[in-house]
Design a protein that fits this description.
eight-stranded mixed sheet, 6 helices, about 30% helix, 12 strands, single chain, Rossmann fold
């Protein structure tokens, strides 16, 4: 797996990441969602540089112009519900992409730290020969992405796989490198070194789904 880590590159992306981490800014859910969306836009712009391109002739009012345009058939797949703002950021740029959604959540039995990932809803087009873009804002243990990847196998074999995350743990990245094909690309805004006993990233930012859409039971 090729890991593209942008935190040390000193770009405006750092401002957006700083704000989603800041517990005072987090009190504004609209601002939080918009920052996640903007991070998605930045990361997918960087990802777009690796796609296939073909020169096409575009007619203007004063003549023709040859422009290299992307030709990959993209499928954007997001994990509900936390992945929705990130998904929107990608869709702002890849507006011709197909879309897939999957519901995956942690199930802690009897309040224990250990958990399993439960997949209950899945809607996706065929993935055969297409470029699959998986979005998961918080790549913590990597188990959610593992379960999503296993579920997607029933819908065909993609030509390429890209994963876009806002914040990842080093352990999570190490884990998914053993699961996904070697040619997979991971695009991540920031990486943190620790996980809590319940598998949450430290310092991270908290629960992305709750911060974007409100507390759940």
């Amino acid at each position: 797996m090729t890991v593209h880590h942008f935190e040390s590159q000193h770009s405006v992306l750092n401002r957006f990441i700083a704000e989603i981490r800041d517990e005072t800014v987090q009190k504004d859910p609209m601002r939080f969602r918009r920052n996640i969306e903007r991070i998605g836009e930045v990361l997918c712009y960087e990802m777009s540089k690796t796609l296939r391109y073909e020169t096409q002739d575009v007619r203007t009012p004063y003549g023709n112009k040859e422009i290299a345009l992307p030709t990959d058939h993209l499928v954007l797949c997001s994990v509900l519900r936390a992945g929705l703002p990130l998904h929107q950021g990608l869709l702002n740029y890849f507006d011709r992409a197909e879309n897939a959604f999957i519901s995956a959540y942690r199930e802690h039995k009897n309040g224990e730290d250990a958990f399993s990932v439960v997949v209950k809803y899945f809607a996706a087009p065929s993935l055969d020969g297409k470029t699959l873009v998986l979005t998961d804002p918080m790549l913590a243990t990597g188990k959610t992405l593992e379960n999503v990847f296993m579920a997607l196998k029933s819908h065909g074999r993609p030509r390429n796989i890209h994963i876009i995350s806002v914040i990842a743990s080093i352990q999570g990245v190490d884990y998914i490198q053993k699961i996904f094909p070697e040619e997979t690309h991971l695009w991540v805004g920031a990486m943190d070194e620790e996980l809590t006993t319940r598998g949450y990233i430290i310092p991270g930012l908290g629960d992305a789904g709750d911060l974007a859409f409100g507390l759940k039971l």
